[in-house]
Amino acid sequence: MPGSRGIRANGTQFARVLHGTPHPSAGRMTPVKETLMKHTVSASVILLLTACAQLPQNNENLWQPSEHISSFAAEGRLAVKAEGKGSYANFDWTYQPPVETININTPLGGTLGQLCQDRDGALAVDGKGNVYQAEGTEDLSRQLVGFKLPIQYLHIWAEGRRVAGAPYRIRSDGILEQYGWTIGRTADSGGQVRTLQLNNGNLNIRLVFTEIGMPSETETPERCAARTR
Prior knowledge:
Number of strands: 13
Helix content: 10-25%
CATH topology of the largest domain: outer membrane lipoprotein receptor (LolB), chain A
Largest sheet: 11 strands, antiparallel
Oligomer: single chain
CATH superfamily of the largest domain: Lipoprotein localisation LolA/LolB/LppX
Distance between the termini: 118 Å
Strand order of the largest sheet: 7-6-5-4-3-2-13-12-11-10-9
Number of helices: 4
CATH architecture of the largest domain: Clam
Radius of gyration: 32 Å
Number of domains: 2
Strand content: 35-45%
Order of helices and strands: HHEEEEEEEHHEEEEEE
Shape: globular
């Protein structure tokens, strides 16, 4: 019968619609449709990332009060900027209570100075071997460089903690404010400090840690080495 083939074909298509049977070509996506889908997915990902970035951070676990800070030995680079002028050096830092020693070296390995504190107070040794002493590191740093540096708190902030019992504020971006300083810290996947940045409006200090581990000395010193010279 003329046209019956077309009727049967149309009937088959109609049956597919009635019974929900997909057309053989239904699974194939046209180039236009595929392009639209890609743009839709990309837009959705961007919106999701933007929304996540705008969510307030949970700072409950940041900057917990200091308790016992374990001994450590660290090396890295130091940058100090004050009044538009910058200085750069390397450092090696040993924290082994009751003694803490920070050596400041030139990029070529020459000694610029040493700062140490113990139970008897703080002292500094310059590159010529001259020794300067004070009751605390803040007073000592003010004598030497004209600024009070929060050296006695650095090991606490480097650990990602705040000084217990002292006023503080944690900003929404995770920055700690304490003793007139803003303190930012980054760490690796294991929680070890990688950078520590401090700013008090006049002075900007940035420490980049390249190595951190346990002190090589097995015996804990009781006094700064410079006191016994």
